[in-house]
Write a structure and sequence with these properties.
- This protein is of the alpha+beta class.
- It has one domain (19-187): Inorganic pyrophosphatase (Inorganic Pyrophosphatase).
- It is built from three helices and ten strands; from the N terminus they run H-E-E-E-E-E-E-E-E-E-H-E-H.
- The chain has helices at 15-18, 141-153, 171-189, and strands at 22-24, 29-36, 42-46, 53-58, 68-71, 84-88, 99-112, 115-116, 119-124, 163-169.
- The strands form two sheets. The chain has a five-stranded mixed β-barrel. The protein has a two-stranded antiparallel ribbon with strand order 3-4.
- Strand 7 (99-112) and strand 8 (115-116) form a beta hairpin.
- The longest helix has 19 residues, at 171-189.
- It starts with 14 loop residues before the first helix and ends in a 5-residue tail after the last helix.
- The relative contact order is 0.18.
């Protein structure tokens, strides 16, 4: 995993554009660049053009992220950003900016301010504590209730009612969303790269 299959360089690579979305597609394992660690109210985002991590905003409420949050390289969602991922069942905080391999277990269909902003749901691939989790349903109803509440209320003090969680699906639908966002990246964003 530490090898990104690039020649050594004196310049910093932007992992959003040199790493593939999948670490092992046959096992639904994706590459994820961590943006926000579970328990934080700070919202960090990767600058798409350069790859650095930027503080996007401090949360407007006391709601902290109930999961680790990140971006999937070489994907492009309908909101004009890389496809988002929630990494659940984390036992210790992950460092923002770090690269992890995660196994896809589902997707949450989400609309933010009228834009499609789906969230892939995954567990750490290297954590044996998550081997039994194969489908988002394995997390139980409380996970869905908590996650829905978080997304529908995280921006409430700034923009009430802008986030709408539609439903949760398993890994098959998540893989369709991922493949679609890979194609969007290839057709819409990759041609802009220098």
């Amino acid at each position: 995993m530490a090898n990104i299959n690039q020649k050594p360089s004196k310049f910093m690579y932007n992992l959003l554009h040199v790493l593939p979305a999948f670490a092992d597609e046959s096992k639904n394992v994706i590459n994820v660049i961590v943006e926000v660690s579970a328990g934080s109210i700070n919202k960090y985002e990767i600058i798409t053009e350069s790859g650095q991590l930027k503080l996007d905003r401090v949360g407007y409420s006391s709601l902290s992220y109930p999961f680790t949050y990140g971006a999937i390289p070489m994907t492009w969602d309908y909101d004009g950003d890389p496809l988002d991922v929630e990494i659940v069942n984390i036992t210790e905080p992950l460092v923002p900016g770090s690269l992890v391999e995660a196994r896809v277990i589902g997707v949450m269909k989400f609309v933010d301010g009228g834009e499609v902003d789906d969230k892939i749901i995954a567990v750490l691939n290297d954590d044996r504590r998550s081997d039994h989790i194969k489908h988002v349903d394995d997390l139980g109803e409380y996970f869905k209730t908590q996650t829905k509440y978080f997304w529908e209320n995280i921006k409430f003090l700034k923009k009430p009612g802008t986030g709408v969680v539609e439903t949760f699906y398993g890994p098959d639908e998540a893989m369709k969303v991922l493949k679609e966002c890979e194609e969007k990246y290839k057709n819409e964003y990759a041609p802009k790269l220098e």
